[in-house]
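From the methods appendix. Each design record in this collection lists the tokenized structure first, followed by the designed amino acid sequence. Records were kept in a plain field format so they could be parsed without special tools. The example shown here is representative of the layout used throughout.

RECORD:
FOLD TOKENS (217 positions):
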């Protein structure tokens, strides 16, 4: 894959607290965002005229996160629409588990490390509706990513835990230009993720990919 301005990993909570209707609203929101001409234009607005995007699903520590959409190059409306189709077609894992937030973040960092394109910025986009309750804690995983020059952002859905945004700010986000947003429920997810992706893809702060990180076993 040719070099890109941004490698963006979308790490999506599919734990037991996310029912099938909510899962549909969440993935539909991601797909709708990439069908938005403004988002597609932002993907092609940088010096390298493209971004790379992948999606993973995370829930419990076992069987662990799984790749939902492999790395795809987005460089305009046609390729953004192809990504949206791939997101729409991603099946939900059959055995949702607990909220192993740190495990999901670790998998996202590893996926970014395997991105087939050289990227000027590396961003992990975490979305979910619950705080960590299984597996490795998110804070140390966040620190590994930040040390490697990765920016970690988060979107908290507050229908289950009204104070989740505070947890994400304290334990999840980090790196150059990092931020956390919230939305009240899943019907509001589509607009929230659209705004979040506009900020992530259009961000001017650069993360350097000049280090190698190793995730603790």
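DESIGN:
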């Amino acid at each position: 894959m040719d070099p890109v301005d941004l490698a963006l990993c979308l790490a999506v909570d599919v734990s037991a607290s996310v029912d099938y209707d909510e899962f549909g609203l969440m993935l539909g929101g991601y797909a709708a965002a990439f069908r938005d001409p403004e988002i597609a234009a932002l993907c092609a607005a940088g010096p390298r005229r493209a971004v790379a995007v992948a999606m993973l699903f995370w829930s419990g520590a076992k069987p662990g996160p799984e790749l939902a959409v492999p790395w795809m190059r987005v460089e305009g409306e046609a390729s953004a629409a192809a990504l949206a189709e791939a997101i729409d077609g991603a099946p939900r894992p059959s055995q949702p588990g607990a909220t192993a937030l740190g495990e999901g973040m670790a998998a996202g960092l590893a996926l970014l490390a395997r991105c087939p394109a050289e990227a000027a910025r590396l961003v992990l986009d975490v979305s979910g509706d619950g705080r960590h309750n299984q597996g490795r804690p998110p804070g140390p995983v966040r620190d590994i990513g930040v040390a490697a020059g990765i920016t970690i952002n988060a979107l908290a859905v507050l229908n289950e835990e009204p104070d989740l945004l505070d947890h994400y700010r304290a334990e999840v986000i980090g790196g150059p230009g990092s931020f956390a947003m919230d939305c009240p429920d899943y019907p509001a997810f589509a607009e929230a993720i659209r705004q979040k992706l506009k900020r992530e893809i259009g961000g001017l702060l650069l993360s350097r990919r000049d280090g190698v990180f190793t995730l603790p076993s």
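APPENDIX NOTE: The first helix runs from residue 20 to 35.
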